[in-house]
Amino acid sequence: MKKTITMALVASVALIAGGNVSSKLSSVAKISNKNCHHDTTFVDTNTNLMWQDAHYTTQEDGAFKNNRSVAKAGTHAHAVSYCRALNYAGYSDWRLPTKEELMGLHRIPGEVFANHRDSDFWSATPAEGRKYFVVYSADAYPYERNSHQSNYIRCVRCNAR
């Protein structure tokens, strides 16, 4: 009797699991070992400017939200230093863009960056007092910000040929 119940239980499990169970596993897709985040750029052919289009990390998003400086987010002084020291996409002549360059960039129809944030980006353009202009990427308008606030950073360079 126990043997009959055991056989019935095994047969039921086999049916529920899909019937014919094979000991061979199906092949698994190969996963590329390439880095997912390449040194991507956007070149504005109207201005001949090359823009950094790097992936934003969780740490950078946290720095922006918590008024700290980490890589592509931070104070104005950090932004200037970050762009000056940047070696990206084979170039080392990056700089912080002007207010006008950022405004023109964000007025281009559609989203030109693979890695974007709808937020404020530092410019090199000073405002009154200890403030600098940021440009809000969603509306392309400039706003004055205290230089000690944390904002996102996108570096630019001349794409001279």
Instruction: Note the gap between the termini.
Output: 86 Å
Radius of gyration: 26 Å
Give helix % range: 25-40%
The CATH topology comes to: Mannose-Binding Protein A, Chain A
Number of domains: 1
Average pLDDT rating: 85
User: Judging from the principal axes of the Cα atoms, what is the shape?
Assistant: globular
- Ranges where pLDDT stays below 50 over 5 or more residues in a row are 13-17
Number of helices: 4
- The arrangement of helices and strands along the chain is HEEHEHHEEEEE
Q: Kindly report the spatial arrangement of strands forming the biggest sheet.
A: 1-2-8
Broad structural category: alpha+beta
Short description:
This protein is an alpha+beta fold.
Tell me about this structure.
The protein has helices at 2-16, 58-65, 76-85, 99-106; strands at residues 41-44, 49-52, 73-74, 120-126, 131-136, 141-146, 151-152, 156-158. The protein has 161 residues and is an alpha+beta fold. It has one domain: Mannose-Binding Protein A, Chain A (Roll), CATH 3.10.100. Strands 1-2-8 form a 3-stranded antiparallel β-sheet, with no helix packed on it. The protein has a 3-stranded antiparallel β-sheet with strand order 4-5-6. The chain has a two-stranded antiparallel sheet with strand order 3-7. Strand 4 (120-126) and strand 5 (131-136) form a beta hairpin. Mean pLDDT is 85; it is low at 13-17.
